[in-house]
Design a protein that fits this description.
The complex is a heterodimer of chains A (423) and B (414).
Chain A lengths: L21 E4 L5 E6 L5 E9 L10 H8 L9 H10 L3 E6 L3 E9 L3 H14 L4 H18 L3 H14 L10 H5 L3 H11 L5 E7 L3 H11 L21 E6 L5 E10 L7 H13 L4 H9 L3 E10 L4 E10 L3 H17 L4 H17 L4 H12 L6 H12 L2 H11 L6 E6 L2
Parallel strand pairs in A: 2-6, 7-11
Antiparallel strand pairs in A: 1-2, 3-5, 3-6, 4-5, 8-10, 8-11, 9-10
Chain B lengths: L4 E4 L5 E6 L5 E8 L13 H8 L11 H6 L3 E6 L4 E8 L3 H13 L5 H20 L6 H9 L14 H5 L3 H11 L5 E7 L3 H11 L23 E7 L5 E8 L7 H12 L5 H9 L3 E8 L6 E9 L5 H17 L4 H18 L3 H14 L8 H6 L3 H11 L5 E8 L4
Parallel strand pairs in B: 2-6, 7-11
Antiparallel strand pairs in B: 1-2, 3-5, 3-6, 4-5, 8-10, 8-11, 9-10
Helix pairs in contact in B: 9-15, 10-11, 11-15
Classes of the chains: A alpha+beta (423), B alpha+beta (414).
Pfam family, one (chain A): Peptidase_M16_C
Organism (chain A): Pedobacter miscanthi
Protein name (chain A): Insulinase family protein
Chain lengths: 423, 414
């Protein structure tokens, strides 16, 4: 007779294999890291540029360059670039994040030789035509107007600005910043940042020697070097800040609370990730259990730790019914207090260990995810020992060590608390 | 190419297995053939609320999430107008835990009052977060009843109104479970580092003892052909005027589905598309413009939507959309343009095989359509579409008398 009350046997994840990259260098010195897999006839090539030359008076320089880089060269118009990339079934994506600007090409192997020259033209000779810039400014200002009606987005903007001030990490972009964009500024930034000496290439997929030669043939020469200064910031922990923007018609309030913490380079980072998981890092977390599953105040609540190159921060974020906003805040602080005053029980801690190991295994789904894992460590100046240590820490950290970390990093007297909506 | 093996248990549960030895993980995906279209018009949002209740404990297992997390697994679910789909990913060596959990809640739920109370609140907050407290968030709550008058697609998955969710009772929950959550109304897909014979043993052990239940025979009210242009104007606290146009199109199983999908790509996939270049770049009438299909099982909608540049009149903007649609009715698309969207689709299909979970979900969905093997014929079906097909369906579809247009205006503009 089947006993449905008895859980089947299970095992904790024992080994996790990381595919490490092979490094090659192009003729002009650009490093190319390849994570190889031959299962599908496709490849992802990421051109990664560090963000440079930060100027507060021109906070959109790097962002606008990233958005407009494929909008025309000496040879091709914006429409021609898009048509050619699409014709080959490829994907050309750009992304601006706090520390870097990424240009990513996804293509089937059979079209690599056709699309690489287009990407080369874009990365080395983009022109940022004035009429494309005008359209961009007009449309971005409209998008900003819509975003400013979203409480969640407002809370992110206020929170980042409170922690990081007027730096690339925290500047609060307004419509007038778009109006101030000049074509010369884009050309200047493009020249400084999108240069071989500021570029790292990470490739994942079916990428053999012949493919490397194609890449080297296109990007290993005829690409002008630049001189640029990598962005550098210093941040100081603040005293408690409470930011409240009242929205009388709000049905829900967006809450975002947190403070500066450490980044991946710090030895406590893995331990803090475990603590974060317990608090709000998975569906069974304490915040979810209390504020969603017990009280029903919200559709979702979570916490996170974010690692930037020059800072780290922790945060708790949710959108809750406007009538229960104060009650939700009270519960959030209560959960933090418990974390700082009571040892995490054995059963819960073991569950979190197993969950995190399974989650790490599952996050290595395909060759792209292996490349992402590499980027996490490489751009923090770490090597694969980081993951060995992470796994070891998850398996062995004690409740006492976690209690100490809670008291060291969750210092509510330094918290920034943002509420948009009603309290 | 997504390979699979297939068998059916004595109680009618269909099981598909996709073996993929390149991953240490496994996926267990279960699709129930029930969606918001199966709801009572006075109890809408129920399929989705029910999805939440599926996580509130089952007859023999008080907590669903905890035992799964304990073995390194994760799970989630979604509800659409057509289906409800649940999935688990976990280390393959712990796959039996997924069978244990998933089979127990197919056998019976715990039907806990506390869970119903909480999830009513959680879903109400979800309703607010996604539909009511966002600019333009309630568009589909307005557009569906404009486009559909009879069919149950006239309400959104979240439901017509908050009160339907607030008034849900335990009796409703039990009746819904009995009617829809039966083995013969479900499709189970197991994928990843598993072997078919092991999956078969586990399926027989955990799922086969579940009673077959009664067969649910779907008999939905059909939508009658639309013969008049419909328009509605909404004013709200939004910063920009917007237009949403909905045209009737056939359901997912119609032969023309692939042509419709390519048609929406021609209009709006990426920066080389027609609407983007003509309306956003050249004429500068919109700051956002999109076209897409609803891909529903019963006759669906072809949507064109855009946000207007400040100062552009709604009449001008609407006329410009119609000019693009009329062009498709009058002129054949070029070989180059058609090949472009076909190549893009081919590429998307290859990239979609990078994800184990996507493969498992797709197998379940195509099995629901009639045969999971259809998934591997997709590329061929797209390649068959000809320029004449695009012109023909454009003529059949883009007509004022079968259109529903929602003008979503700022308060100053109304």
């Amino acid at each position: 007779m089947l006993n449905r009350q008895q859980a089947p046997d299970f095992k904790q994840v024992s080994t996790i294999n990381f595919i490490q990259p092979e490094k090659k260098v192009m003729d002009n010195g650009v490093p190319v890291f390849t994570i190889y897999s031959g299962e599908q006839d496709l490849v992802r090539i990421e051109f990664i540029f560090e963000n440079v030359n930060w100027k507060l008076e021109k906070p959109l320089q790097a962002i606008a360059v990233s958005a407009l880089i494929n909008n025309g060269t000496n040879k091709l118009t914006s429409k021609e670039i898009a048509e050619q990339i699409d014709f080959y079934g490829a994907f050309f994506q750009t992304e601006y994040v706090q520390d870097q600007s990424l240009v990513t090409l996804y293509t089937l192997n059979k079209h690599l030789h056709s699309v690489l020259p287009i990407v080369k033209d874009v990365l080395s000779a983009s022109q940022f035509p004035q009429h494309e810039l005008d359209i961009y400014i007009q449309n971005q200002k409209q998008k900003l107007q819509v975003n400013l009606k979203k409480n969640d987005i407002l809370s992110r903007k206020e929170f980042a600005n409170a922690l990081f001030g007027d730096t690339a990490y925290g500047v609060n972009i307004k419509a007038e910043h778009y109006d101030a964009l000049k074509r010369e500024d884009l050309l200047e930034y493009f020249k400084a940042a999108y240069a071989p000496n500021n570029c790292t290439i990470v490739v994942s997929g079916k990428f053999n020697d012949a493919a490397f030669n194609l890449l080297n043939g296109a990007f290993g020469k005829d690409w002008e070097k630049s001189s640029a200064v990598k962005n550098s910031f210093n941040f100081n922990t603040t005293d408690k800040q409470v930011i409240y923007v009242e929205k009388p018609e709000a049905l829900q309030s967006a809450i975002r609370i947190g403070q500066l913490a450490i980044n991946r380079k710090h030895e406590d980072f893995s331990g803090l990730q475990i603590l974060n998981t317990v608090l709000g890092g998975y569906f069974g977390s304490r915040l979810m259990n209390n504020i969603r599953e017990d009280k029903g105040y919200t559709y979702g609540i979570g916490s996170g730790i974010s690692s930037l190159q020059q800072a780290g921060y922790l945060f708790i974020a949710t959108e809750v019914g406007a009538d229960v906003c104060s009650a939700a805040l009270t519960e959030i602080y209560k959960e933090i207090d418990i974390l700082k005053n009571e040892l995490i029980g054995e059963e819960e801690l073991n569950l979190v260990r197993n969950y995190m190991l399974g989650s790490m295994l599952g996050s290595l789904e395909n060759v792209f995810s292996h490349a992402d894992k590499f980027k996490n460590i490489y751009f923090s100046g770490l090597d694969y020992d980081y993951y060995t240590n992470y796994i070891e820490t998850v398996k062995s950290i004690t409740a006492e060590e976690l209690l100490a970390l809670a008291n060291k990093y969750f210092t509510t007297e330094h918290f920034t608390e943002v509420v948009i909506g009603k309290k | 190419m997504v390979d699979f093996n297939r068998f059916t248990l004595a109680n009618g549960l269909k099981v598909l297995v996709h073996e993929d030895a390149t991953t240490p993980m496994a996926v267990l995906n279960i699709l129930y053939d029930v969606g918001a279209r199966d709801e009572d018009p006075n109890k809408t949002g129920f399929a989705h609320l029910f999805e939440h209740l599926m996580f509130g404990g089952s007859v023999n297992i008080p907590s669903y999430d905890e035992p799964l997390q304990r073995v390194g697994g994760e799970n989630n679910a979604f509800t659409s107008n057509d289906i409800t789909n649940y999935y688990i990913t976990l280390p393959a060596e712990n796959i039996e835990t997924a069978f244990w959990l998933e089979s127990d809640r197919m056998l019976s739920l715990a039907f806990s009052e506390k869970s119903l109370d909480t999830q009513r609140n959680v879903v109400s907050e979800e309703f607010k977060q996604r539909y009511l407290n966002q600019p333009y968030g309630d568009v589909w709550l307005k557009l569906r009843p404009l486009a559909y008058k009879k069919h149950s697609y006239r309400w959104a998955t979240i439901g017509k109104e908050l009160s339907h969710i607030e008034n849900a009772t335990m009796d409703d929950v039990k009746a819904f479970f009995k009617k829809h959550y039966t083995p013969q109304n479900a499709i189970l897909v197991v994928g990843g580092n598993v072997k078919t014979e092991d999956v078969k043993k586990l399926a027989e052990k955990w799922f086969e003892p579940i009673p077959a239940g009664e067969k649910y025979n779907r008999d939905l009210v059909r939508e009658e052909p639309q013969t008049e242009a419909r328009q509605e104007t909404v004013k709200a606290n939004v910063p920009l005027n917007a237009i949403y146009m909905a045209f009737k199109m056939p359901g997912r199983l119609n032969d023309d589905y692939y042509a419709f999908d390519l048609l929406s790509d021609i209009l709006s996939r990426g920066q080389s598309s027609r609407l983007y270049n003509s309306l956003l770049k050249e004429q500068q009438l919109f700051s956002d413009i999109n076209a897409y299909i609803s891909s529903s099982l019963d006759p669906g909608l072809f949507i064109v939507e855009g946000k207007l540049i400040e100062g552009v009149t709604v009449e001008t903007a609407e006329k410009a959309i119609w000019a693009e649609l009329d062009k498709l009715k009058a002129e054949l698309v070029s070989d180059m343009e058609l090949t472009k969207v076909k190549n893009k689709v081919e590429s998307v299909l290859v990239f979609s095989e990078m994800s184990l979970l996507d493969k498992a979900m797709n197998l379940a969905y195509y099995e629901l359509l009639g045969d999971a093997a259809l998934l591997n014929n997709e590329t061929e079906a797209f390649l068959k579409v000809e320029a004449e097909d695009i012109r023909r369906i454009s003529n059949e579809t883009f007509n004022l008398n079968s259109s529903s247009t929602l003008y979503y205006l700022t308060e100053e503009n109304a």
